[in-house]
Amino acid sequence: xxxxxxxxxxxxxxxxxxxxxxxxxxxxxxxxxxxxxxxxxxxxxxxxxxxxxxxxxxxxxxxxxxxxxxxxxxxxxxxxxxxxxxxxxxxxxxxxxxxxxxxxxxxxxxxxxxxxxxxxxxxxxxxxxxxxxxxxxxxxxxxxxxxxxxxxxxxxxxxxxxxxxxxxxxxxxxxxxxxxxxxxxxxxxxxxxxxxxxxxxxxxxxxxxxxxxxxxxxxxxxxxxxxxxxxxxxxxxxxxxxxxxxxxxxxxxxxxxxxxxxxxxxxxxxxxxxxxxxxxxxxxxxxxxxxxxxxxxxxxxxxxxxxxxxxxxxxxxxxxxxxxxxxxxxxxxxxxxxxxxxxxxxxxxxxxxxxxxxxxxxxxxxxxxxxx
Length: 372
Ligand SMILES: Cc1cc2nc3c(=O)[nH]c(=O)nc-3n(C[C@H](O)[C@H](O)[C@H](O)COP(=O)(O)OP(=O)(O)OC[C@H]3O[C@@H](n4cnc5c(N)ncnc54)[C@H](O)[C@@H]3O)c2cc1C
Fold this sequence. Notes:
The protein is an alpha/beta fold. It has helices at residues 29-32, 45-51, 110-119, 133-144, 160-177, 279-293, 356-371; strands spanning 10-13, 53-56, 61-65, 70-73, 78-80, 84-86, 90-92, 101-102, 104-105, 125-129, 148-153, 181-184, 188-193, 202-209, 214-216, 219-222, 226-228, 244-246, 251-253, 256-258, 263-267, 272-274, 305-310, 313-319, 328-332, 337-343, 346-353. It has a five-stranded parallel sheet, with helices on one face.
């Protein structure tokens, strides 16, 4: 907004007590202990001053009255607005029995990452529940720190629907070659605590699987997906459907906008509503919303892009991997490859395995198609 010469007041309400920070390093450098937490900060004192922001931390939005144009916070404040941007992101899903047990973690915030990091001592037994990107990134980081890691996943072929069968099987193979045990087609029956006398909170001791296997555990990460933070909008009258439903301009109502992981908007290039849980989309969509608040009236039609880093593998995907996912390898060496995905002969996605540079022309081709 400031880059677009907006001179009015900007109030940033945030539930967390920390200043905004970058989340991708939480499962990588911060969890590994190679980055100080301060390195993830997105908003320094200098920047707050330069942008003239009114930053209110520990200030959760509790409800919104669209007629009165007021956000009510948990601190009892009524914050008036001319335009409202919802960027409340997601929170981790959990599983029955996880609450109240010491040593059972989720990972979304910096505090979560620091708590999990403290349990990753050599020879610890970590059980990761869920072989999605988050679970596997944590498995890679923990294994590289000398931790014994078992990943439990109900699907037969995790991540196939996101990166296709070839990259998915190569990724699981990489984990196995590093000594991570990956158990597929099995669920969790119970999280079990050691019998303790007098302790106020019991500590995880083992995980029992649906096939009867008992896995010893000094720590557990529950990585089974996330839920959009939209409860505070329940009485607002805005349409909520697994996210805040928006039009092609990212507007959810008159002068109400949404961006980032929480926004489900009508992608004009794809002709359907999508919600992306990717870091780059959060930035691009926030910029698009700012431009539209300033009256530019531009539909938001990005090429989706995400990456994941696991061991020395950097996987990047632009566009979409279609359900069949059997793309064509167009370049390959021992350590890298590029795979393109087409539907009816038309390029719809591209995947690079340690091939960031080789991906660039395909990303341009995808952008030109979305814009066309
Ligand atoms: C561990 C981890 C690793 C990741 N790695 C990658 C990666 O490698 N590549 C990639 O593309 N993406 C990655 N991501 C995803 C990426 O971080 C997200 O897409 C991005 O953080 C989304 O930004 P956001 O601003 O929409 O939401 P968030 O970052 O979730 O921010 C939302 C903020 O709103 C606050 N909030 C919620 N409800 C309220 C309320 N009622 N009132 C006030 N404040 C509220 C929350 O506390 C939070 O601070 C990763 C995410 C995590 C957690």
